[in-house]
């Protein structure tokens, strides 16, 4: 097909069947040149995803950028209708405006889309999915699935297994969010400020309105009428939707910190039913996609460097919340790689479940 980036014939299957007889799929990654898209490409290879053809898309800005996939060189192109035809799944890793503009065409072409942006997350007609929590929504094989906000995924990976047992009433989440949450440009900003500081040069601010080096500040998303910022509002609305718990009380304070990747969240949870730290530790030790870092074994509590590159969300400091209802309140420290479980990995897992459904 003209204009479509393809892997070599050793990977491309014209019959849509691999040699082993299992189905293989044409996958389009839209926003392949960004922080999340790059992780998606690596995950498809690492997880031995059944790809018949991989197509990479970006804006005009990065068109022509080359990627390696299973030993082949792929070139990222701008999105055109004819270059999408024949795709089975599209993993959207671009902004919300781009997602909104492409969704009708993807649906018309019968391409199942998993969108990382905020465009469709709160649309009641669109499933908002974390496979370990509400993966059953994929059994109906929706044509469009929304991937939740990264801080929400990281928080709920730990809150949801406890909710299932003790019924969550209130969640207070204070986040410490890495600069890569703002995309590749966020990482470049912190790195260039660090280099400038080391060279005794002036620190330039391009993406964020003030220095992120040696600083923390409230999340840089737009401020809403009630004084929340958009990130906090996402955490509130998306948590309720994913847990199917409309009346869940959520308090959120989202903060940007000078780490490169992996978001940390101080979680305070209040439950209807009694739950102890020991019970919580036992539940979380068995929760898929969660790893308990147990300080009583002499381990350091989790931190973003420890969590970077890991599929699992790390939880440590599981303790009584002395400010909550006695016997029904817990405080926890949660850290997860928001580029992986908070975005790319969750999206790839959704496609894997859709294929299996
Ligand atoms: N970063 C995170 O931790 C994270 C977590 C959860 C969800 N998300 C969401 O995931 C999405 C991607 O985030 P990111 O951090 O990867 O951002 P990013 O690093 O800024 O990458 C954005 C990507 O979108 C592409 N793009 C922009 N306009 C496009 C267009 N018109 N057509 C096709 N591609 C276009 C960019 O291409 P160029 O290279 O050509 O500019 C780039 O590949 C966003 O919606 C974000 O909110 C991000």
Describe the structure.
The structure is a single chain. This protein has 357 residues and is α/β, with parallel strands linked by helices. It has 2 domains: 25-119, Rossmann fold (3-Layer(aba) Sandwich), CATH 3.40.50.720; 152-338, Dihydrodipicolinate Reductase, domain 2, CATH 3.30.360.10. It contains 10 helices and 16 strands. It has helices at residues 35-46, 81-84, 96-108, 131-134, 150-166, 184-198, 230-242, 277-285, 304-307, 340-356, and strands spanning 25-30, 51-58, 66-69, 72-75, 77-78, 89-92, 112-115, 127-128, 144-146, 168-177, 217-218, 249-256, 263-271, 290-292, 313-320, 329-336. The strands form 3 sheets. It has a 7-stranded parallel sheet, sandwiched between helices. It has a 7-stranded mixed sheet with strand order 11-12-10-13-16-15-14. A two-stranded antiparallel sheet has the order 3-4. Helix 1 (35-46) packs across helix 10. Mean pLDDT is 94; it is low at 1-21. The protein binds NADP nicotinamide-adenine-dinucleotide phosphate. NADP nicotinamide-adenine-dinucleotide phosphate binds next to helix 1, strand 2, helix 3, helix 6 and helix 10.
